[in-house]
Amino acid sequence: MIFITKLNDKQIVINCELILTVESTPDTTITMTGGQKFIARESVDDIVSSVIEYKRQVIRSNENLGG
C-alpha cells in the first residue's frame, strides 16, 4: 500500500499491487487493474519510488520471518 495525494490535497492509500499503469498526461494518472483511475499530485517518478520502497519493505519483512 502506498500513499498518494489527490488534486484536492486529500491523501489516500492505494494497493500498489493493483496498479496497471502510471502516466504523466500532464497530471500523474494511475490506472488500476479494475479500471479505476486516480489523479495524483506526485510525479510518476515519486509513485515508482514509493512502489519500490513498499516492495523492499515486504521483502525485508518476509526475510525476517524466515521466508
Structural class: alpha+beta
What is the number of helices? 1
One letter per element, helices H and strands E, the order comes to: EEEEEH
Largest sheet: 3 strands, antiparallel
Strand content: 25-35%
Distance between the termini: 20 Å
Low-pLDDT residue intervals, each spanning 5 or more residues: none
- Count structural domains: 1
Rg measurement, Å: 13 Å
Q: Categorize the overall geometry.
A: elongated
The helix content is 25-40%
Describe the strand arrangement of the main beta sheet, using strand numbers.
3-4-5
Mean pLDDT: 95
Number of extended strands: 5
Describe it for me?
31% of the residues lie in helices and 34% in strands. The strands form two sheets. A three-stranded antiparallel sheet has the order 3-4-5, covered by helices on one side. The mean pLDDT is 95. The chain is α+β, with helices and mostly antiparallel strands and 67 residues long. The protein is built from one helix and five strands.
Briefly summarize what is shown:
By secondary structure, this protein is α+β, with helices and mostly antiparallel strands. It is built from one helix and five strands.
